[in-house]
Structures are given as structure tokens and as C-alpha cells.
Write a structure and sequence with these properties.
- The structure is a single chain.
- This protein has a 7-stranded mixed beta sheet, with helices on both faces.
- The chain has helices spanning about 30-40, 45-50, 55-65, 85-90, 105-115, 120, 155-165, 185-205, 215-220, 225-235, and strands at about 75, 95-100, 125-130, 140-150, 170-180, 240-245, 250-260.
- Helices cover about 40% and strands about 20% of the residues.
- Helix 8 runs antiparallel to helix 9.
- With about 260 residues, it is of the alpha/beta class.
Amino acid sequence: MLQSETSKSESPAWVDRELDTLHENADKHEKVRAMFNAIARSYDLNNRVHSLWRDQAWRKRCVREARVKSGESVLDCACGTGDLTQAFARYSKAERIVGSDYTPNMLDIARHKREHLHDRIQSRVEYQQADAQQLPFEDESFDVVSIAFGIRNVQDPEMAMREFHRVLRPGGRLMILEFGQPSFPPMRWFNTFYCGTIMPRTATWIARDTSGAYKYLPRSVSSFKTRDEMHASYRHARFVELWSKPLTFGICNLYRGHKPA
């Protein structure tokens, strides 16, 4: 049985006074791991409910835009419970798909879900605990690196993107899915109210969470990089041929960049 690190502690991972400077918090990486350990069991349910069942479509679009060729290898960083990892196995011709995550409880669920896949899909998927900022893979090991709704949770996103560049082969693609702010005012107002007021309450109730996860998660979106800033991060990490696409009115954004051939 999974037991969260936070449940063993008397204090939550995040408290209100830390939320205004969460991306600058020196302990962000370990707080995020404790938080995800705490909510791992209910993570998939909350994703489905609070995205209105759009999250799987976003992942499927990410796989399609990665343009994986037969025999290529994929690394899915911050894979969580393995939804995007398994989407690459189902909807691409990748020969090998590695899901990596910093949180043990999330990986336990990902491995359990893999056991229920068809043998042909299951055999192409593997999981490994790893820090996105210090990947335990050799240079030029993968043709695609992906990270879905995880780059904002990394202590140093720029360091992680340099690692993604390092492990990609020339011509490889970095795919990032991340939440954003809709540009259409009525949708932006609704999304702000929904994510700031409704979702934290209902998600906390579903998860029976005491870690502060659903205070942190919406605040981490609203205070993270804009699309232009994400493009700049790609350029700073030496990616070229940058492309991005807002999905579902800009509630999330899909990014792609290439490592120069």
C-alpha cells in the first residue's frame, strides 16, 4: 500500500505564506515530491474531472506532433502516473519509451497501470526514478524528450532543458505540454475563477489532501512563464525550429523545438 511522505509529517508540503514565491523556494523540488507522493492515488481522477476529460486529448496531440518515426526512442520526463508515456506506446511507432519521475508513489502507480496493457505495448515501456535536472542517461540517447505539466514543478527549469538537449540525438525533438492563460477574455476570466476558486476545493476534497497540493498547483500555473518566455527558454537551451500551439482556447500550450542536426 502506498503511504505518502506528507502523511507521515505533521506539516503540509506547502503553506499559504510560501505560495507568492513558490518558484523561488529553495526547497521547491523536495516539496513538490512530497506533495505528489501525497496525492498520487487520486491524481488521475482529479486530472480527468478537472480538465473535463480533455487531458488525454492533449497528450494524444503531443504524441502526434512529436512525429515519432519507426524505431525511435522516447524519454517522458516527470511522467507521473504514466499517461503520456503510455500514449507514446499506443499512438506512436517508438521502439522504446522510458518514463522517468522524481516521485516514487507516482511511479508505483505507473508501473501498476503498465501491467494492464497489451503485451505488445507493455514490452516497449519502462520506468525509472530520475531527477529531470540530472538525468541518468548518456548523451544523445533519445530521439524525443517530452514533459507534460511538469516543467513548472522543476526547481531549475533552465537546467532541466539543458539536460533534455544533452540526451537528445541531433534532430531530436523536445515536446512540452504546460498550462497557460487563455487570450480570449471571457475564457480567461472563467479559467481564472475555475482554477483559483472551484478546483482547489473540489480537488482537495477528492484527494483528501493535507499537503497543500491544490493550493500550489493553480498558483504555480499563474506565476509561471508565458508562451514568449517559454520560447526564450527553448532558445537559451539551443533548440531551433520552435513551434507552439494553444490547446482548448489556450488553457494549455504545446511546444516543440529541435536539437540542431
